Structure formats: C-alpha cells, structure tokens
Amino acid sequence: MLSDVGVIDLGVMDRTQTLARVLHKVDGADIIELGCGEGQVARALADLGASVSGYDPFIGDEHEAWTAHGRGRFRLLRGRAGHTAEPDQTADIVLFVYSLHHVPGDEMGAALREARRVLKPDGQLCVIEPVAAGAMQYVSQSYHDETEVRRNAQAALQRFAVPAFAEERVFHFAERTELTDFEAFSTRALRGARFNDYTEAEVTAPEVRSRFAEMVATTGGVFEQPVRINLYTTPIAAHFGSTDE
Q1: Which terminus of the chain faces fewer neighbouring Cβ atoms within 10 Å, N or C?
Q2: According to the model, what pLDDT value does residue 221 have?
Q3: How far apart are CA 214 and CA 209, in angstroms?
Q4: CB under 8 Å, gap of 24 or more: what pairs does 182-191 form?
Q5: Are 159 and 109 in contact (CB under 8 A)?
Q6: What is the pTM of this model?
C-alpha cells in the first residue's frame, strides 16, 4: 500500500537543482535516464559526481563510450525506454525528465516496468513531467498541444508505478524562462522539433505570435512552466516481472 505523504512545493528551481534536492544522493550514484534527449541532464548530473547512462531513440553511436565529465561520467545510448542493455537491479536511480509523455501510450507500461527491473532494492524512480498549464502551455498549444499525452503519462504512473513501489512522494516546482522576443521563443521551440512532430511554419504562425505577444504583455516576458515530480522509493520485490498491460 502506498504511503503518500502529501505534495511539496519547491518553488522556482531548474531541473538540476530539483534533482539534487529530491534524490537521496547524486554523488557516486549509478543513474539511468530514459528519454535523455541530447544529454543535458546526464551531463549536469555527471558534474555532480554521478555515473549516468542515458537512453534515447535519437542518440548517435558516437556517444556510446563513457565520457568523464565534472566529478562523474556519462554515456548516451540509442534505445527505447522499454528495453535497455542494463542488468537487473543495478541502478540507484532511474529518471524520466520531461520524457514519459513522449513514450507511445501502448509502451508506457513496458517503460515503467523496465525502470523497475533495473532499480536496486533501495532505488528511486523519479518522473518529472510538465503540467499542461501556464503561459508557455498557452502559447505552444496552438501548434503542439500535449495536454492528452501528459494526462496519459500520469495515468500510466497510477497503473504501473504505484503498484510497484511502497512509497510515492509528489513535488511541484516551476521552471522560469525569460523571453521577450519572439525570435528567441521560436529558436527555443525549434530546438525541440527533432523530438516532436511540429514544423517551423507551425511554430512561427500568426496565432503563435499573437499568443506570445499576449503573454509578454501579461507577464513581462517571464514564463513559468509548472512541473510535477512523482518520486517512488522502496520497490516491491517481484512486481517487475509482470507483463500485463
């Protein structure tokens, strides 16, 4: 039975600060990040002393070797979240950072079971997901509305992660970005086009420009993205062997 100790509001923080705050120990930890993108989080955690293996379908072969970085090391490997080359129960921490909602809906269960499989008995599963709300959501939903997939990610956690762990803790925080120029906004948005299904024409459409100008007038160009963290600890012994969807 899960023990939910309540939601903790961390205020305005960046992702690395948040991970350092909520995880047991980053320095010296063996971490697997599923859906690592281009490895920004992996590098940041290596700076703090972790050994990080990041998996993503878009990774090139040139990143597969371990690379020393800061006090730790990292490597990036091509692979889907539901299948890694990691042995059972070898990771201190498994992360999904803004990535679970990108996993196809029929593969989310496999991805969360894989996370459970590779975790040590005292390991932590940390899932960081943007909430479909706020100024950035208002601007971007006209070309890339992730409301449904983010909702699906939370439903998958309830179905597959909750039964597999003895404790869940929920945190909220906000990521703050200052953008007063539409070109800066569109450049930032297009960096994510590789991992998404939108085009430059969609990002720079008149409706997007209008929404951006409206939010700049409202917020002064300060965009805060609300974010939810589901942190699971104390894995339940045999659960990861299940194949039920």
Answers
A1: N
A2: 95
A3: 9
A4: 182/209, 182/212, 182/213, 185/139, 185/212, 189/140
A5: yes
A6: 0.91
What's the pLDDT score for residue 2? 44
Secondary element (H or E) of residue 190: helix 182-191
The burial of 167, by beta-carbon neighbours within 10 Å (0-12 exposed, 13-18 middle, 19 or more buried), is given as middle
Q: Which residues of the chain have pLDDT under 50?
A: 1-4, 241-245
Confirm if 180 and 15 have CB atoms less than 8 A apart: no
Dist. CA 140–CA 142, nearest whole Å: 5
- CA distances 204 to 14, 131, 137, 167, 199, Å, are 27, 23, 15, 44, 9
Domain boundaries in the chain?
Answer: 3-130+146-174+227-237
- The residues with which 67 forms a beta bridge, in sequence order, are 74
